[in-house]
Structures are given as C-alpha cells and as structure tokens.
Structure prediction request, 190 residues.
Amino acid sequence: MLIFATNNQNKVKEINSILNGVIEVKSLKESGIEIDIPEPHQTLEENAREKSKTIYNLTQTACFSEDTGLEIFLLNGEPGVKSARYADDENNYLNNIDKVLKKLAGISDRSAQFKTIISLLINNQEFQFEGICKGTITETEIGTNGFGYDPIFIPDGSSKTFAEMTIEEKNIFSHRKKAVAQLVQFLKNR
Ligand code: IMP
Prediction:
C-alpha cells in the first residue's frame, strides 16, 4: 500500500483511474491525515520531494507525491512551479486561466506543456519520475470536465481540450499518466 500525499481530490481520481487497482493507494483523506503540505521551492522536483518527505516523516509509510506545472514557452516557462497560485494567493482556477489568456492575448505561438514530477519515498530513499504532455493553449475556455488549466489546453494529437475529455481520454495523453506509468514500472521491477 502507498499513501498518495495530496489534498487534491481531482488528482486522486485521476491516479486511481490510471492505476485501476494495480497498486493499492490511499489518499491523505483516506489515511486520516489532515495537513496542509507546504510547496515553498522554486522547482517542481523540490516541491514534490518536500511533500513526500513531509508525509513519510509523519507516517513512516511508503508514499508518493506529485507536483505539476503548466509551462508556456513564450512566457519563459510560466506559470510553471507557480501554477497553483499564478493569479493570487488562492488556488483559483478561473483567475489563473484568466491571467494566462490575458498574457497570451494577440500571441500566435501558444505552445505549452504540462510537466509532472512524482516523488516516491520508500525505506527513506527517494526516487523521481517525470511525465510531459506537449500541446497548445486555446484562445478561450472550452469544456467543463477536469480541473485547473484543463479548459485551455489541447494536447498534441487531439482537437479537444482536456476539459472536453473523460478521465480515460485524458489519460491517453496526460503528463500524470506518463509519470505514473514509470512509477508502476519501477515498482514492478523492484
Ligand atoms: P500542484 O501540483 O498541486 O502544485 O498543482 C499546480 C496547479 O497546476 C494546480 O492547481 C492546477 O491549477 C494545475 N494543474 C495540475 N495538474 C493539472 C492538470 O492535469 N490539468 C490542468 N491543470 C493542472
């Protein structure tokens, strides 16, 4: 059993749909842990490590966390590690999307990528896995599924935004799916 160190129920849903029971995962909520995990660092890698270490130190149980950022090339990789709190101190999806669309107004190169870093902590040893999904930012929000920047991101190889897809469709393309696939492979090979 692995604890998934997140309070984001959207991520829990996605990870459960990807793992489909292959590995037993318990969210913080299901483990009875109530904690606001800090994300104080300047990189996804350090923040992911901070989250898994915090929960490992608390539980002494194998666990993993993930940190994800949307990187827009013409904005020098922004919002990147600041994706959750791009517009203000709140994790407000609508304000964050609004800020991205305003910054990209009139810009034709709208290429971007989502990057997920998973940090796994087992027996006090850390292992990281990366998943990248390349795509483009739309001009307006399209679709109501998913969370975060899903309504403005079309992955390469599709004509739909993530917010127009079911979780299963999103899993065909997603950064999170790619990182989790590596985690599963690693655990199988141990
Ligand atoms: P964090 O990994 O919890 O720090 O997430 C950062 C922010 O990135 C979230 O608040 C969401 O706004 C956004 N985000 C993370 N994963 C996704 C995704 O799969 N789709 C869209 N937005 C995402």
